[in-house]
Design goal:
This is Type VI secretion system effector, Hcp1 family. By secondary structure, this protein is mostly beta strands. It is built from two helices and 13 strands.
Amino acid sequence: MPTPCYISIQGETQGLITAGAMTVDSTGEIGLEGHEDEMLVQQFLHNVTVPTNPQSGSPSGKRVHKPFKFTVALNKAVPLLYNALSAGEKLSNVELKWYRTSSEGKQENFFTTSLEGAVIVDIECEMPHCLDPSNESFTQNLTVSLAYRKITWDHVSSGTSGADDWTQPIEA
């Protein structure tokens, strides 16, 4: 089973969109201490590519950042995410924190992905077929796709980082 990651989203108009998303009132289950203002990410997908010449392997175009997609269970932040999509609200800060079990047996944030200048470009809500017994452990899910201006990857534990702002030229 993958280790969890949590996402927090700050909108320029609505403020902290994920405020209270992991509380009992929001999830209907237990709240997660220390993660009350984040959403538990069920699935994540992101792809960055560089077009290349198939014969030589040489770059043939500018890098392409595909939508940053994450899936969460329905919670109190969902209506606010739809508001942000409908209004084209800029998201001033999106932060995805990845966790692992430390050598002391505790959860530690070892990797962080941050987005700047993000906007929601797609939301897909899905409920697995409720009469299919193989779906018993699933719930209603929301997949959110984000476009963004800048992305930063930080390996918190080792202190390494990388970033890409597609509005800036790449320097060697």
